């Protein structure tokens, strides 16, 4: 299989896109380190992978905690022998209020997880990927890292940052065989988006219908749609792909 013998770490692997990615990477032969701030969710993803004949182990991890990130990456390398693939997926939507109404604390929380988390995890990963002779880092940006919308200000800031952090790291580590790419999902029906729907004024069904209509393809995406793209970037099928933006958005940004 495409990822036989590869060790992959996924952050925020307990739900949504991260969970679908863990399942997909395992189905392609990878050893999967499922990490999440919610240890129970990470554990149940591991159980699902094991039940399907795959290999996975879970670690509780808050990506905003630099020391913890380093410890977990070292533990994963020790457990599986090396690290080949890192999927920086953990992220939050943060507050959905106009910029002038956002507190510094609310702003920093999004940056701490969505931006600093990717930095900590990349920093912890690079020595391991170098040791493995190369590897692939896949960073979750968003359509909100490519185009604007009049909502989620700190989220937009964070995903724009992730897009260019990916390019810088792609250039810095290309000679060492480490590829770095960003993925830009349209709206995907996950607990994150369900949370936005629940806190909206119009109700969940109307919110979902409105989101469906934003995508030329006619509906929001599924976590598996993104997992397929991530598995491609993780694999040697993408051996000439670095510093690129993989847009999986049902046509959202094509207009
Ligand atoms: P989700 O909320 O459904 O799942 C995120 C997972 O990350 C959860 O299991 C949560 O426990 C975990 N998590 C949260 N904070 C964490 C932290 N500090 N450390 C470690 N884990 C943490 O989210 P999702 O919709 O699957 O999104 C995954 C990624 O994809 C995010 O980076 C998100 O910004 C991005 N994305 C999502 C969409 C979408 O429409 N769902 C669109 C574009 C980009």
Structure description:
The protein has a single domain, classed as NAD(P)-binding Rossmann-like Domain (Rossmann fold). With 255 residues, it is an alpha/beta fold.
Taking the alpha carbons of the first and last residues, their distance comes to 37 Å
Number of helices: 8
Estimated radius of gyration: 17 Å
Q: Uncertain spans, ≥5 residues at pLDDT below 50?
A: none
Helix amount, in percent? 40-55%
Tally the beta strands: 7
Major β-sheet annotation: 7 strands, parallel
Principal-axes geometry comes out as globular
Based on the structure given, which CATH architecture is correct? 3-Layer(aba) Sandwich
Per CATH, the class reads Alpha Beta
Q: What is the CATH topology assignment?
A: Rossmann fold
**Succession of helices and strands:** EHEHEHEHEHEHHHE
User: Strand share of the residues?
Assistant: 5-15%
Q: Assign the CATH superfamily.
A: NAD(P)-binding Rossmann-like Domain
Mean pLDDT: 98
- Bound small molecules, which ones? nicotinamide-adenine-dinucleotide
Major sheet: arrangement of strands = 3-2-1-4-5-6-7
């Amino acid at each position: 299989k495409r990822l036989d013998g590869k060790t992959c770490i996924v952050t925020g692997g307990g739900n949504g896109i991260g969970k679908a990615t863990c399942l997909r990477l395992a189905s392609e032969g990878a050893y999967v380190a499922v990490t999440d701030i919610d240890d129970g969710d990470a554990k149940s993803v591991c159980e699902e992978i094991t039940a399907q004949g795959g290999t996975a182990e879970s670690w509780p991890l808050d990506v905003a905690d630099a020391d913890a990130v380093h410890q977990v990456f070292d533990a994963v390398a020790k457990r599986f022998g090396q690290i080949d693939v890192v999927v920086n997926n953990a992220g939050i939507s943060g507050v959905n209020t106009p910029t002038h109404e956002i507190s510094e604390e609310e702003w920093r929380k999004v940056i701490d997880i969505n931006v600093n988390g990717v930095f900590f995890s990349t920093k912890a990963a690079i020595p391991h990927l170098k040791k493995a002779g190369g590897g692939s880092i896949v960073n979750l940006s968003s359509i909100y890292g490519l185009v604007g919308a009049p909502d989620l200000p700190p989220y937009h800031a964070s995903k724009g940052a992730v897009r260019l952090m990916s390019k810088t790291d792609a250039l810095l580590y290309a000679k060492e065989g480490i590829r770095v790419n960003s993925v830009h999902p349209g709206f995907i029906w996950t607990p994150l988006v369900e949370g936005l729907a629940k806190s909206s004024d119009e109700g969940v069904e109307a919110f979902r219908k409105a989101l469906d209509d934003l995508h030329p393809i006619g509906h929001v995406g599924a976590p598996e749609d993104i997992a397929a793209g991530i598995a491609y970037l993780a694999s040697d099928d993408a051996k000439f792909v670095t510093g690129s933006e993989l847009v999986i958005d049902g046509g959202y940004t094509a207009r």
